[in-house]
């Protein structure tokens, strides 16, 4: 009965999305959790080294970074490379800097599994314990026998078969009750079925048995020894960490987790080795005995850890391109964050496989220092941008004689002036007519379970190298500063009581009809998401086109795949909307347009 009720609620949620009724999707009120991240706080860093000292040519790493940069489908944000336990290179694509903890989605599952390993070692429960024993006080009087027979191991390797899944969390307040009252789609332990609620049940279990939330439990055992602070892990409406998603990590902190596994659970704390995880747990977790697939790609799964296509390698994986790849054969760890169009696997894997799946360029001994190559690597890593088209064109390099003349006869300095296009728009306010365009990306809004008001008015002001836009909705106002000189401007945006830091760029140009166009990118530095806007001006009117990275089309395919995977009413509705998601009202929501005209002054 619970599954039928949940399916009806989920179907209703989908239909509300289809109708554009986004602000009434959840039956429970939104509770803000996220505070401003202290990016300026001093952090415990990994030891540094030049690549050559660890047997890796700088030129080889530069080619690796440039190939990632050239693959536009990946939309890389940050990459951190470790070898022999030392950070040998890192790159960040403007406006991302690596200073902010980013939402890592399902990579959270691997950290939840670490907590389970510690709890098992402490004797709080065992892998063979089942839900009927562990949650006997929460099981309903009349329930299917299958959910009660699900073991901790079934939850870890995604073989529980529990039907209640991610889509149901939007419509149900008590996720634990919903899971325990759900049925299983197959006999537990016999098949693989990816479901983030398996991880949520593990989080709830650690909370129940330890008397602490997941973050509180892991802080002295994992986060403090690794120097990960502060830690945000989103909670369900009942106050339990989500387990399967919701954790925020800096790229370097992600790499620390991979290095911990590479070292079989050992970590140096104040110069002394300390065992944070049992070696046997790391080995069990990475024993890929369960064969499965990531989309069309065949792979294997351990305890919340995925196989990786290099012999002996494995990965912690989060949707939209959040990866920690551990390569024991090369003694390397790579951590990547991105806004990839892929959902579980993208073009990152073959690039990593090509560069680090063999030892043709990797030495077990230190290489001679190559200052020229290392300088070139450093300059390349500082030059990358998420959206190269938003960067100003570089002026041509002056000739030798121009440099000589400039040295002896320097040009007089002039005060920076606004371009004619910026001067014409400076101080203007436009009133908008439709009610769909919002400042916050659709995917981020859906993940947080809160959709902001559409803005109905936008005001523009310009100064040399920068512009400011004030977006006004009925009850909320947001101000965004955007760099026009290639340097992103950072500011904080309030989102229902939560604070998100964004880095923004703007560029004035013209379209093929000669109309003035303002391109605006707003990257949420703690999420994979970037809001894109294109303002097209014609006289006193404006047309705004909205888009975002990652694409909403791919995300909706993922959502409908999840909710349709268990069949029933949800699948019927999901199939219908999947057929129409590029047309009609759905298109107005995921890729809206706004028209308006200048306010009379």
What does this 3D model show about the protein?
- The protein has a domain at about 420-600: Calycin beta-barrel core domain (Lipocalin), CATH 2.40.128.
- The strands form five sheets. A ten-stranded antiparallel sheet has the order 16-15-14-13-22-21-20-19-18-17. The protein has a six-stranded antiparallel sheet with strand order 2-1-12-11-10-9, sandwiched between helices.
- It contains 19 helices and 22 strands.
- With about 600 residues, the protein is of the alpha+beta class.
- Helix 2 (about 60-70) packs antiparallel against helix 12 (about 350-355).
- Helix content is about 30%, strand content about 20%.
- A hairpin with a 4-residue loop joins strand 15 (about 465-470) and strand 16 (about 475-485).
What key phrases describe this protein's structure?
single chain; alpha+beta; Lipocalin
User: How many individual β-strands?
Assistant: 22
Structural class based on helices, strands and sheet pairing:
alpha+beta
Q: Under the CATH scheme, which class of the domain at 420-598?
A: Mainly Beta
Spatially, the strands of the biggest sheet line up as 16-15-14-13-22-21-20-19-18-17
The CATH architecture category of the domain at 420-598 equals Beta Barrel
Q: What does the largest sheet look like?
A: 10 strands, antiparallel
CATH topology of the domain at 420-598: Lipocalin
Instruction: Outline the low-pLDDT stretches.
Output: none
CATH superfamily of the domain at 420-598: Calycin beta-barrel core domain
How much helicity do the residues have? 25-40%
* Average pLDDT, all residues: 88
Number of helices: 19
CA gyration radius, whole angstroms = 26 Å
Strand proportion, as a percent range, falls in: 15-25%
């Amino acid at each position: 009965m619970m599954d039928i009720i949940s399916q009806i609620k989920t179907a209703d949620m989908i239909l509300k999305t289809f109708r554009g009724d986004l602000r009434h999707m959840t039956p429970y009120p939104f509770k803000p959790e996220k505070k401003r991240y202290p990016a300026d706080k001093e952090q415990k860093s990994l030891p540094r080294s030049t690549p050559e000292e660890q047997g890796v040519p700088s030129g080889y790493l530069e080619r690796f970074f440039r190939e990632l940069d050239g693959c536009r489908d990946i939309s890389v944000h940050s990459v951190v490379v470790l070898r022999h336990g030392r950070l040998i290179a890192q790159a960040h694509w403007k406006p991302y800097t690596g200073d902010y903890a980013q939402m890592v989605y399902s990579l959270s599952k691997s950290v939840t599994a670490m907590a389970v390993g510690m709890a098992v070692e402490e004797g709080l429960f065992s892998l063979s314990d089942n839900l009927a024993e562990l949650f006997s006080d929460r099981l309903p009087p009349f329930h299917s026998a299958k959910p009660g027979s699900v073991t901790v191991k079934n939850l870890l390797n995604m073989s529980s078969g529990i039907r209640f899944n991610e889509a149901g969390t939007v419509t149900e307040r008590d996720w634990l009750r919903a899971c325990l009252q759900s049925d299983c789609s197959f006999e537990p332990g016999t098949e693989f079925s990816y479901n983030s609620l398996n991880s949520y049940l593990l989080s709830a279990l650690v909370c129940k048995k330890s008397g602490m939330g997941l973050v509180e439990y892991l802080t002295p055992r994992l986060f403090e020894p690794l120097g990960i602070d502060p830690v945000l892990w989103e909670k369900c409406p009942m106050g339990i960490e989500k387990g399967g998603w919701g954790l925020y990590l800096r790229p370097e902190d992600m790499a620390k987790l991979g290095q911990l596994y590479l070292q079989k659970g050992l970590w140096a704390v104040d110069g002394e080795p300390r065992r944070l995880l049992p070696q046997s747990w790391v080995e069990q977790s990475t024993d890929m005995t369960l064969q499965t697939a990531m989309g069309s790609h065949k792979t294997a799964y351990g305890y919340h850890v995925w196989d990786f296509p290099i012999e002996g390698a494995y990965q912690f994986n989060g949707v939209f391109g959040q990866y920690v790849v551990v390569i024991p054969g090369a003694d390397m760890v790579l951590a990547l964050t991105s806004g990839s169009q892929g959902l579980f696997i993208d073009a990152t894997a073959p690039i990593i496989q090509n560069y680090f799946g063999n030892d043709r360029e990797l030495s077990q001994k230190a290489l001679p220092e190559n200052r020229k190559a290392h300088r070139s690597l450093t300059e390349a890593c500082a030059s990358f941008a998420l959206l190269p088209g938003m960067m100003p064109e570089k002026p041509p390099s002056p000739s030798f004689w121009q440099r000589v003349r400039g040295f002896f006869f320097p040009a007089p300095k002039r005060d920076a002036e606004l371009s004619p296009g910026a001067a014409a728009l400076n101080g203007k306010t436009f009133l908008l007519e439709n009610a769909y365009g919002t400042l916050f990306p659709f995917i981020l809004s859906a993940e947080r379970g809160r959709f902001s008001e559409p803005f109905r008015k936008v005001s523009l002001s310009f100064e040399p190298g920068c512009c400011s836009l004030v977006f006004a909705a009925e009850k909320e106002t947001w101000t965004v500063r955007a760099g026009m000189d290639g340097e992103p401007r950072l500011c904080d945006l309030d989102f229902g009581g939560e604070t998100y830091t964004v880095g923004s760029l703007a560029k004035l140009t013209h379209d093929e009809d000669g109309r003035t166009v303002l391109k605006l990118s707003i990257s949420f530095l703690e999420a994979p998401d970037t809001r894109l806007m294109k303002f097209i001006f014609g006289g006193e009117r404006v047309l705004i086109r909205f888009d975002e990275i990652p694409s909403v089309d791919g995300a909706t395919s993922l959502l409908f795949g999840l909710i349709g995977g268990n069949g029933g009413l949800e699948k019927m509705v999901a199939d219908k909307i999947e057929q129409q998601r590029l047309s009609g009202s759905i298109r107005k929501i995921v890729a809206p347009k706004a028209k308006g005209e200048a306010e009379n002054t």
